[in-house]
Amino acid sequence: MPKGSKVSIVGAGGNVGSIVAYSIAMQGLAHEVILVDRDKDRARGKALDMNQAAAALRTHSVVKAAESYEDIADSKVVVITAGFPRKPGMSRDDLLFANADIVSEVTENVVKHAPDSIIIVVTNPLDTMTYVALKKSGFPKNRVIGMAGILDGARMTHFIYEKLGFGAGQIRATVIGGHGDYMVPLPRYSTVAGIPITDLLTPGELAEVVEATKKGGAQIVKLMGTSAYFAPGKATAIMVEAILKDSKKIYPCSTLLEGEYGVHGIPNGVPVTLGADGVEEIIELQLTPKEREEFDRSVASVKELIDILESQDYFGEKK
Ligand SMILES: NC(=O)C1=CN([C@@H]2O[C@H](COP(=O)(O)OP(=O)(O)OC[C@H]3O[C@@H](n4cnc5c(N)ncnc54)[C@H](O)[C@@H]3O)[C@@H](O)[C@H]2O)C=CC1
Ligand SMILES: O=C([O-])CC(=O)C(=O)O
């Protein structure tokens, strides 16, 4: 691992952030993992617990609780999971105002103390929070990335397995679009050991897989009273790994579209290559008219939230 592979996680006292940190530390992906949370004792406790797990595993990653934002200096990646999770009956969009304020505050501190970092946003509503971090940081778009597509694809993979009853570990599923009720699962780009799932499942079964994927987050919220964290945390750690290793692997991530997919100025989930510069390439899929329509609907739903923030001059751009 190159010297200086330092990763900071803001919101690490919470469910998702602590799984991100734990995954990175247990894999020995970074020399230093910094836990930032407004609940400092929780961050201190998690750091002790993770360091002791690292000692048991004999891995070299060192986990530290931040005493102040100064401790995130020189981070290669800063992950933002700070913010409220939804409760049963809520949509992710209901978190808009409360979490926009948190993401704004965190981003301002990232700019001040880790100005060269790559930001991975996890806080919901994801695509809009990615936009908030982008605007508030002024970072180039390749350095502000939203996590959702890896998670949504993993959920679809699981639901395909549930239908098939075989192929675990060999299923690849693709989900694009925003991380909300209008996400776009793509059976046409999903395979089992290279075999298109459209050859293995009936249209009715595929429709059930698509529906289950869209409701995958809400299903867990209903069962647990709060949202998922193991799969979201792991999905985020996968993005961190691709950046630290400069792997250039392709993953669906939320990124600002500036003409790609015919979209201008809205972040949305599309396949990208992830490397040391963050988002290095945006890959344009050739969508069918129906897929295109669904993607456009998803973009529109993100734009509605951004418009709400802009109508209140959230980014201070009105004269
Ligand atoms: N993009 C995605 O696919 C997913 C997004 N999420 C989102 O991630 C966020 C976090 O979820 P959980 O970890 O379950 O919530 P949580 O409540 O367990 O953790 C949030 C943490 O953020 C901290 N925090 C709040 N405001 C802060 C601030 N201003 N500065 C520093 N720390 C602050 C809290 O003290 C808490 O420890 C939620 O918004 C949730 O909706 C969750 C799962 C998947
Ligand atoms: O469902 C939620 O609110 C959290 C989330 O984004 C997910 O697990 O997909």
Automatic annotation (TrEMBL):
Cross-referenced InterPro entries: L-lactate/malate_DH, Lactate/malate_DH_C, Lactate/malate_DH_N, Lactate_DH/Glyco_Ohase_4_C, Malate_DH_type3, NAD(P)-bd_dom_sf
Domain Lactate/malate dehydrogenase N-terminal: 6-146
Reactions performed catalytically: (S)-malate + NAD(+) = oxaloacetate + NADH + H(+)
Keywords: NAD, Oxidoreductase, Tricarboxylic acid cycle
Active site: H179
Family: Belongs to the LDH/MDH superfamily. MDH type 3 family.
Protein name: Malate dehydrogenase
Organism expressing this protein natively: Nitratiruptor tergarcus DSM 16512
Gene name of this polypeptide: mdh
